[in-house]
Amino acid sequence: MLFSLFSRKSFKISSLTRFCFRYNEGNMANSQTIYTLTYKDGVPCAEVKKKGAETSDSFKVDEAFVKRLEKILLSHSVDKWNGFIKSDKRVHDGNSFDMSMTNESGEHFSALGYMKWPKNYKEVRAELDSLFQEC
């Protein structure tokens, strides 16, 4: 049996230490939106690169922001996306996404798609847009 790097594994969404969500709409320059959460010297920091922007902006955020992020992911069962990797190879210049995260236990999460989306993708993306645009 072949081992797949993207095999579906359980992932516990709590105590996130790193989060990254990227989505691309077409292949135009700067068409990618990127949201990240990392910790610098124990302080949570968000980075936002909006569609059309050439650079990203960094912000210190509080633990309430981190909890809201985790609540969005939990309420839509995003943990079940771990290992999602699907694409529609018939489409050229389409839309894509990838999400990765790590929790305090060192578990890793990865999901990606090209013109294929996991359950609740649109709702999750809209809520993440709203959360990170508040920064």
Q: Structural class of the secondary structure composition?
A: alpha+beta
Helix and strand pattern? EEEEHEEEH
In spatial order, strands of the major sheet run 4-3-2-1-6-7-5
Question: What is the count of DSSP helices, taking H or I runs of 4+ residues?
Answer: 2
Helix content: 10-25%
**Poorly predicted ranges:** 1-6
Largest sheet: 7 strands, mixed
Distance between the termini: 46 Å
The average pLDDT score comes to 90
Overall spatial form: globular
Q: Strand content of the residues, in percent?
A: 35-45%
- What's the gyration radius in Å? 15 Å
How many β-strand runs? 7
Characterise this structure.
This protein is α+β, with helices and mostly antiparallel strands. Helix content is 19%, strand content 36%. It is built from two helices and seven strands; from the N terminus they run E-E-E-E-H-E-E-E-H. Strand 6 and strand 7 form a beta hairpin. The radius of gyration is 15 Å and the shape is globular.
Summarize the structure.
This protein is an alpha+beta fold. The chain contains 2 helices and 7 strands; from the N terminus they run E-E-E-E-H-E-E-E-H.
How is the secondary structure organized here?
Elements: E1 16-25, E2 32-40, E3 43-49, E4 57-60, H1 63-75, E5 85-87, E6 95-103, E7 108-114, H2 121-133
Parallel strand pairs: 5-7
Antiparallel strand pairs: 1-2, 1-6, 2-3, 3-4, 6-7
Could you name the key traits of this structure?
alpha+beta, globular, 135 residues, single chain, 7-stranded mixed β-sheet, disordered N terminus, 7 strands
